[in-house]
Design a protein that fits this description.
mainly alpha, MFS, 433 residues, 20 helices, Growth Hormone, Chain: A, membrane, 0% strand, transmembrane, MFS_trans_sf, MFS_dom, 74% helix
């Protein structure tokens, strides 16, 4: 890649941070050790990675599993409810995970790490136990959508913030490992649900998932420790950031990207059963397969992004995701859909793992990154909120073709916005070259 178009990646040890961890990791004589005393390894540091991995697994991982619940609700529990209405449950959960981070970020900065971890753990586990008792749509919306969503929002900031305070040169690798927990959760939980639900019923299958979550989150409470406290409080909003074209266009890209990106995750099981000739049992495994692909898609591109720049890696991966979404239209065989699921999972995974470091690369100062992260995630959350329900409504009225085109076009618009953000940033980079 030529020098003038190579994305500038901050060389500061905090450059690959996520959410509010930029401020929380900044060294201060009164609150932190010098940068060269950051552990960058060792048992305690890797225990934080393990804890963060578990938090991702039980927040994003649960959201990535919603397609299994969506299929069951459509076929059994909520037969009288449309696919669009059912998908509001999962989209609300995902939206709250991102939007609540705007409020929990300052609480994390103020030193309330264990409060967030405790409250979030209680809410997600309590929400899943209550989900196991639900028989009506409104009950599921309150338990699985609202309660689990609020709990996930409390856990999201700790999951992305803690690792960066323990690592410098290994930061991207450690963060990638932690983020891969979301993909693994999307593999484990749908399989657990699919295998247990026919044998022990919906209630106990959901309770087993809740008990698994409880055990892992108790482990997080036992091992996760704050190494440094932030030197200053974070502002909630910075409206002037939207005067900068690169940041604004990337924020718009997140909105459209998340609006279309999760449609295959929610509807892959239903499509496989109705359009590829798969048996019901095999079609249920399409969601674990697509999530298995995303596990690697959140580690390998993150590793390469240290050399290319996050936005330079995000653009081609997102473009391939859009092309795969268009290819989805022509897939009607079992083998073809399995290959599509693996590839789409891999390349779409970068749109979850790379935006935080992309915001860092588009920010003029590390002191502004936490606030900008929250603002950007708000738009991503709104995209998640409306994307899958709109796709469900299109499916009801126009069939699978309309849903597939909505997915592909949304991701394509996101790629176009990323390109504008990239090349509007280029003049500044050329001036520094």
């Amino acid at each position: 890649m030529s020098a003038e178009f190579k994305e500038e990646v901050p060389t500061d040890p905090l450059a690959n941070t996520t959410s509010s961890d930029v401020e929380s990791a900044s060294p201060s004589p009164s609150t932190s050790k010098p940068a060269d005393e950051i552990p960058n390894g060792g048992l305690r540091a890797w225990l934080q990675v393990l804890g963060s991995f578990s938090l991702f697994l039980n927040t994003w991982g649960v959201i990535n599993s919603f397609g299994a619940f969506q299929s069951y609700y459509e076929d059994e529990l909520l037969r009288h409810v449309s696919s669009s209405d059912i998908s509001w449950i999962g989209s609300l959960q995902a939206c709250l995970l991102l939007i609540i981070g705007v409020a929990t970020g300052p609480l994390f900065d103020a030193g309330y790490f264990y409060v967030l971890l405790s409250v979030g753990s209680f809410l997600v586990v309590f929400g899943m136990f209550m989900t196991s008792l639900c028989t009506e749509y409104w009950q599921l919306m309150l338990a699985q959508g609202l309660t689990c969503g609020l709990g996930s929002g409390c856990l999201f900031i700790p999951s992305v913030a803690i690792v960066s305070t323990y690592f410098t040169t290994k930061k991207s690798f450690a963060t990638g490992i932690a983020a891969s927990g979301s993909g693994l959760g999307g593999v484990i939980y749908p399989i657990v649900f699919a295998r247990l639900q026919p044998r022990i019923g919906f209630g106990w299958a959901t309770r087993v998932i809740a008990f698994l979550m409880l055990g892992m989150l108790l482990g997080c409470l036992a091992v996760m420790r704050v190494r440094v406290l932030p030197p200053q409080k974070r502002r909630l909003l910075e409206p002037r950031a939207f005067l900068e074209l690169p940041f604004t266009m990337f924020t718009v890209a997140e909105f459209f990207g998340f609006m279309g990106l999760y449609i295959p995750f929610f509807y892959c099981t239903a499509y496989a059963a109705k359009n590829t000739g798969m048996s019901h049992n095999l079609s249920f495994y399409m969601l674990p397969i697509i999530n298995a692909g995303s596990v690697f898609g959140r580690i390998i591109p993150n590793f390469l992004a240290d050399k290319t720049g996050p936005l330079n890696m995000l653009i081609p991966c997102s473009l391939i995701s859009a092309l795969l979404a268009f290819c989805w239209i022509a897939i009607e065989s079992t083998g073809g859909f399995i290959i599509f699921s693996l590839l789409y999972g891999f390349f779409s995974g970068t749109f979850v793992s790379l935006p935080p470091t992309t915001v860092v690369s588009l920010s003029p100062s590390l002191q502004m990154v936490g606030t900008r992260m929250g603002m950007s995630f708000c738009f991503a959350g709104l995209g998640l909120l409306i994307g899958t329900p709109v796709a469900g409504a299109i499916l009801q009225s126009s069939g699978w073709l309309g849903t597939q085109l909505f997915c592909a076009c949304s991701v394509t618009v996101a790629v176009a916005c990323c390109l504008v953000a990239r090349f509007s940033k280029a003049p500044a980079l050329m001036a520094k070259a």
